[in-house]
Write a structure and sequence with these properties.
The chain is mostly helical. It has a domain of 36 residues. The chain is 57% helix and 4% strand. The protein has a two-stranded antiparallel ribbon.
Length: 157
């Protein structure tokens, strides 16, 4: 977490116009960069899990409320009947895509990178950048945060 804040702080120093895009998660309190069109909002949740968890909770609440109505109970009965018939004809599902990185994470990194570089960055560029970043390892014996702070002091933006 500390490493994330070091990088976020250095980005804001190098690009002060992004300060208005800095938001605090309503649920967990983590600071993150959002798209400029959301800069005035106070009800945002972070893209690190709070946003998806909130969306799932709200969907479950809506679904539960609907299936408690008369129409919802009737439709659920029909769906359950279809499921029983399909179980006899079931074929194995094809495996999910071989995406190394979740689409939402790549989308967020793409948006933040586009803001920082002040140009449109493609999804392929982000995936290549993530692959390079994951492959690289530190050669020093220092703690990771000490290495990052040293690097930022040596090559300040």
């Amino acid at each position: 977490m500390l490493e994330y804040y070091v990088v976020l702080r250095s980005v804001l120093r190098a690009h002060p116009h992004l300060r208005r895009c800095l938001k605090c998660c309503r649920h967990c309190g983590i600071f993150f960069l959002t798209h400029p069109c959301n800069a005035g909002r106070k009800d945002l949740r972070c893209p690190f899990g709070c946003r998806d968890a909130h969306r799932r909770r709200r969907a479950a609440r809506r679904s539960t409320a609907y299936y408690r109505t008369k129409e919802g109970r009737y439709k659920k009965k029909i769906q359950n009947g279809k499921r029983r018939r399909q179980a006899a004809d079931a074929q194995p599902r094809p495996a999910a895509g071989d995406n190394e990185y979740p689409d939402k994470m790549v989308g967020h990194v793409r948006m933040v990178t586009s803001l920082i570089e002040d140009r449109i960055v493609s999804r392929d560029e982000i995936v290549m950048m993530l692959r390079r970043g994951v492959r690289q390892h530190s050669l020093g014996r220092r703690l990771r945060i000490d290495y990052i702070v040293g690097y930022l002091n040596k090559a300040s933006p």
